[in-house]
Amino acid sequence: MVIKNNGIKKLPLLEINNLITYYGLIQILKEISLRVEEGEIVCLLGSNGAGKSTTMKSILGLVRAHSGEINFRGQRIDNLSAAQIVAAGIATVPESRRIFPRLSVEENLQIGAYIHKASLPSLQPQIEQIYNLFPRLKERRRQAGGTLSGGEQQMLAIGRALMAKPKLLLMDEPSMGLSPALVDKIFEIIQQINRSGTAILLVEQNAHMALSIARRGYVLQTGSLVAHGTGDELLHSEEIRSAYLGE
Amino acid sequence: MSLRAKRSNLIRTHGDCFASLAMTPQVSDENTTKKLNNFFNGKKFTLENLSSIWPLFPLAFAKSVPLILAATGGLYSERTGVVNIGLEGMMLSGALAGIIGTYYSHNPWIGLAAAIAAGIILALILAVTSVSLGINQIVSGIAVNILAIGLTGGLLFKIFGGYGSSPSVEKLPQVSLHPIPLLSELLGNQSILFYFAVILVIVTFFLINNTRLGLRMRAAGEDPGVAASCGINVFRIRYFGVLMSGALSGMAGAYLSLADLSQFVERMTAGRGFIALAVLILGRWKPFNILLVCLFFGLAEALAEFLQGIELTIPAQFLLMLPFILTLFVMGGLIGETKPPACLGKSYQAE
Ligand SMILES: Nc1ncnc2c1ncn2[C@@H]1O[C@H](COP(=O)(O)OP(=O)(O)O)[C@@H](O)[C@H]1O
Ligand SMILES: [Mg+2]
Description:
Bound molecules: adenosine-5'-diphosphate, magnesium ion
Oligomer: heterodimer
Order of helices and strands of chain A: EEEEEHEEHEHHHHEHEHEEHH
Number of domains of chain B: 1
Low-confidence stretches of chain A: none
Strand order of the largest sheet of chain A: 8-9-10-5-11-12
Number of strands of chain A: 12
Distance between the termini of chain A: 32 Å
Mean pLDDT of chain B: 82
Shape of chain A: globular
Largest interface: A-B, 31 and 23 residues
Number of helices of chain B: 15
Largest sheet of chain A: 6 strands, mixed
Largest sheet of chain B: 2 strands, antiparallel
Low-confidence stretches of chain B: 1-29, 39-43
Number of strands of chain B: 2
Radius of gyration of chain B: 20 Å
Order of helices and strands of chain B: HHHHHHHEHEHHHHHHH
Number of helices of chain A: 10
CATH topology of chain B: ABC transporter involved in vitamin B12 uptake, BtuC
CATH class of chain B: Mainly Alpha
Shape of chain B: globular
Strand order of the largest sheet of chain B: 1-2
Distance between the termini of chain B: 61 Å
CATH architecture of chain B: Orthogonal Bundle
Mean pLDDT of chain A: 87
């Protein structure tokens, strides 16, 4: 898909073509094709076990694609290592808030910037920016990550991903298990991150909220994409709502 | 003397790892008696001058060196998430390689380099099998130990023609801190490796806690999956950890053969690699804690030799069991709480 913008042909930020991924002998993803444009929020919906996390891991190179193509900023990345992919500009907020529980809050953030090979003291200004976004983290900077509350851990996971200065942020169910107030807060932050120019591929169970902030969405069912449209279209399609969004 | 004869007989008949393990100081008895006589200017040590316990300390420091080197080596590996049961075998190979290198080059420094290389080669086996191929780390480590026992026994026979020990070679230099009065008396003459070990602990502390490399090691040990998603090459950092443990335990072996003794004796490590693993647990994977535990164990070992030196009937073996008893208590949760790296022992495979 090529979009004309100011007369210049613009490639999508992320483009996946016919991605097939296996776990052992079991095929999990069946010819998935999707794209994310610069500055977009795109959400990926689907029930448990549909293959959403597997899609995320395939993009990041944590799971090897069996066949198909993944392009990022015009460069093939499906044969790169995770380290190279992160260095190319993709960061992730993994499923279920996986932070490093025994490392301090600040160390967790430092690891996020690991691929930039900057000395630890030189990361301080960037860490301060994260603290501005999440003041709670600053209060707990010396505390072990594992001592934080669930919401704070999710903020730490997001802060860690932002430390990589990504062009594309993969977020795997960031609102899972959080109180409604915190869910609102997380969605606010997602939009704030997006406004600063970072594209976001968002996996969510909370389809309503996700579609309301996303420009476009895809619906995944047992490894196949079964629907695709703008946030509004998906939100108002009776068929989608009843079949895939569990309403 | 009869006790000593009985014990060496025991080793010959039950010459398996664990029999010799309980009799750690066997190989350096002669050495120690000589040292003790020096301490007392030729006078025999008696209960009356027990108050002059002073000479115990240099011996304790000397005994702690191989443990400090091996346990710190183990720390590098385990902080990245790889259990290194093979420390014992890596030490043993280092001990023999040190002697072989020195024997042919007449230079103990080349022997030391050979010991480090031998440790690294065995560590490479552990790294390839457990890190790259994902084989159970314990199984790989045991294989390394068995390989080392067979290899050192075979090579010893092949090169020096049997008798369970090698000819004597030149030792690594000893250093005394003459200009500093109190410290030099406390330390006595120590091998240069003692000073290296102390510096190693300081450097390791700084490296683990204050550098990018240390952060990367801890991340890989705590959660390799998330570490990978942050762009850390988990395989590479685990190789680094395992190879460092090989280099340092090889050096620990060289200390036994090129600094403590001046020859290789079959199975001379006598379980010190396993004690180093216990030290890691007791020291909670922290460099300075490990140093303290090693000094304590060194003291226990020195005391055991001391008691043998004056032919007391107190079974010195009890003192040598101390490390193991303490470790059991700690692991059983009776003393404090142990918190190993969260993913210690778990292999990581890109899915
Ligand atoms: N490491 C794994 N090994 C084997 N199968 C897996 C693994 N991880 C996930 N799966 C399987 O792949 C399918 C998709 O999982 P996942 O991508 O996690 O789904 P989702 O994130 O949409 O809930 C599920 O059937 C799951 O059981
Ligand atoms: Mg999932």
